[in-house]
Amino acid sequence: MATIRALAFGLVFVACAHTAAAQPLRPTEPPRGVTVPLAEYNRLIDLASRPPEPAGPPVAAILAGAELRVRVERDAARGVVNLTGDVLRAGVSRVALMSGATLLEANVAGRPVPLVADGQAHAALLPGPGRFSLSLEWGAPLRLAPGRASFIVPVPPSGSARATIDVPGDQADVHLSAGLITGRTTTAGRTIVEATLDPGSSTEVWWSMRDSATVAAVKDVRALAEIMTLVTLDEADVRMVALIDVSVNGRGQIETDLPLVMSPNSAYHVNVYANGQQLDNVVTCANLKFQMAPPR
Predict the structure, then answer these.
(1) Could you tell me which of 61, 137, 68 has the C-alpha nearest to residue 96?
(2) What pTM was computed for the model?
(3) Hey, which bits of 11-75 come out as E strands?
(4) Residue 41 contacts residue 106 (beta carbons within 8 Å)
(5) Coil, helix or strand for 19?
(6) pLDDT over 50 (residue 181)
(7) Which homologous superfamily does the CATH classification assign to the domain defined by 61-209?
(8) In the chain, where are the structural domains located?
(9) Cα 269 from Cα 289, distance rounded (Å)
(10) What percent of the chain lies above the pLDDT cut of 70?
(11) 3-class SS of residue 286
(12) Tens-place pLDDT, residues 104-132
């Protein structure tokens, strides 16, 4: 009996000490004690000795990366977005995808994905926990202005976002409202741009066409000439006709000296032809007359 009373007194003393340690004394109140049964006391001790349960993940899911491929055809832009990420909590979680876009299709490994629309924001319902790879197809209209075309690219709120943008024209000058262009190539009359975009933003892409006419290189003027001479001998005189054929590889001016042996008191007529010896092709002509001046 004395042992039971001592044990009960010890339990009351420990409970009072524990309560006093947990709640500081108020200066206006005297110290008080609380008596609890032994079973309740043991339960409280067990609860106090258990380690705290680990806290759950702060978010339901994360998007690790996004790969966008966009192609412009006629008056619309269509793109495909490949998303990778992880669902962190057990059960079905809501995963934010993109905002301000017209979604055409969404699938995981070829299977449709349930989508939820909240205004202009779109989200997918995915089971977890586990990794996922999601494919989205979207479209946007072109905004046309004199000398300029543009459209909006909805960028998912992922850790990183890279894009390949294909626009018509081999000399298209492509710009981004947000992000960085890392590469530019031209092929088959189209311009392909590699870019890193700002995650979670609505990026405007616009471009203008530049003059693609090539400037011909300056070349030296080169000429090829051929001279044909016909000499006619008569009883009283000698007549000579010379035909000069000149081929030039470009624009230029040709200056030449024609050595003529002229008889005194004689006259000559010279024609310069272009593209054939027809009268319609005469460029210029001249009458030459040679007279001997009397001695002074």
Answers:
(1) 61
(2) 0.55
(3) 61-73
(4) no
(5) helix
(6) yes
(7) tricorn interacting facor f3 domain (2.60.40.1730)
(8) 7-21+33-49, 61-209, 223-290
(9) 9
(10) 64
(11) strand
(12) 999 988 889 999 988 889 999 999 899 99
